[in-house]
Amino acid sequence: MQALRLHPGDDLRLALEGQGGCGFVVVGMGSLSSARLRYAGQAEPAVVEGPLEILTLSGSLAPDGAHLHASLADATGRVFGGHVCVGCLVRTTAELLIASLPAGSLARELDPATGYAELVVRRP
Predict the structure, then answer these.
(1) Each residue of 52-66: pLDDT tens digit?
(2) pLDDT at residue 124 above 80?
(3) Do the Cβ atoms of 89 and 33 come closer than 8 Å?
(4) Where is the PPC domain (predicted)?
(5) Domains in the chain, start-ordered, CATH in brackets?
(6) CA angle 74, 27, 60 (to 5 degrees)
(7) CB 46 within 8 A of CB 38
(8) Rounded to two decimals, what is the model's pTM?
């Protein structure tokens, strides 16, 4: 397990993809100044202005990309959730716990059935 703290202005997705390893984001909490979430079935992300609290964050990390989902609450308690895109900017902090896996155990490959780069699990 690896603990990670992100700082104000860090991009949540880019910071996690920058880790370069294989694993799963087990839990994440903190705050965002703004977010870009792609909702189910939508081609483009929506911009959600903050301040926002990260209620949940989870996903998979592979050297060739991440698949991250989050639920966020605004200052009125309204909740938004979806696929985390580049542009989710940390407001005060983001605290994350990552379960690391051996190098080469996860990858992303285009799946013709979905049209997306999907997770491939390899046994090293």
Answers:
(1) 999 999 999 999 889
(2) no
(3) yes
(4) 1-122
(5) 2-121 (3.30.1330.80)
(6) 105
(7) yes
(8) 0.90
